[in-house]
TrEMBL record:
<keyword id="KW-0175">Coiled coil</keyword>
<dbReference type="InterPro" id="IPR050111">
    <property type="entry name" value="C-type_lectin/snaclec_domain"/>
</dbReference>
<keyword id="KW-0430">Lectin</keyword>
<dbReference type="InterPro" id="IPR033989">
    <property type="entry name" value="CD209-like_CTLD"/>
</dbReference>
<feature type="domain" description="C-type lectin">
    <location>
        <begin position="69"/>
        <end position="188"/>
    </location>
</feature>
<dbReference type="Pfam" id="PF00059">
    <property type="entry name" value="Lectin_C"/>
</dbReference>
<dbReference type="GO" id="GO:0030246">
    <property type="term" value="F:carbohydrate binding"/>
</dbReference>
<dbReference type="InterPro" id="IPR001304">
    <property type="entry name" value="C-type_lectin-like"/>
</dbReference>
<feature type="coiled-coil region">
    <location>
        <begin position="7"/>
        <end position="58"/>
    </location>
</feature>
<dbReference type="InterPro" id="IPR016187">
    <property type="entry name" value="CTDL_fold"/>
</dbReference>
<dbReference type="InterPro" id="IPR016186">
    <property type="entry name" value="C-type_lectin-like/link_sf"/>
</dbReference>
<protein>
    <submittedName>
        <fullName>CD209 antigen-like protein E</fullName>
    </submittedName>
</protein>
Amino acid sequence: MAEEDAKRALETAVKNHTMLKDQLQQKKIINDGYQKQLEALRTERTTLLSNISALESSCGKCPSGFLHFNTSCYFFSYAESSTVKKNWHDSRTDCINRGSDLIVIDSPEEQTFVGNNVNKMVQGLEIWQNGFWVGLTDMDTEDHWVWINNVTEVEPRYWMDGEPNEYGIGEDCAAVVYSSSNPWKSRNDANCQRNELYWICEKVSR
């Protein structure tokens, strides 16, 4: 009798051991799953923090393709494509489509910034065919140059020697061209419709 009781007790103990072993294995599988989920969440958190950092660093700056200077963002079309050129009107349309407009240069610092960038981009290329349209014209009144924000241009020192000269065919739009000697003296007038050049857009930084 005692032997049978012991045998049954042993069988029960073996069953309990097997059951506990199975439960432990299941818990290990569940725990491994939790560990994998935790690792995935940690990775996702790291990615989110990285994205937040990137957004914070770009906040107050410029969209892709634009350069930041002072409080504005600038798009130099040559940097996107050295083969695409447009007339003045189509260039302005492109700027507007980018949420900006043709550049208005209203300080010596901005003039130097623009001149230096143009010089870096088109150095060695034909000067007159590789200028950059800006938002300055005398379309309404000949020799009365006005920016697209309705501010009259009063700085003749920025024009290249002999410019603006109208050149007999009607040159009512201004462009910035390569100037090796002085980035301040870099403006030239060109035909708004016939001449196809690069262009510079400007928008206020966020």
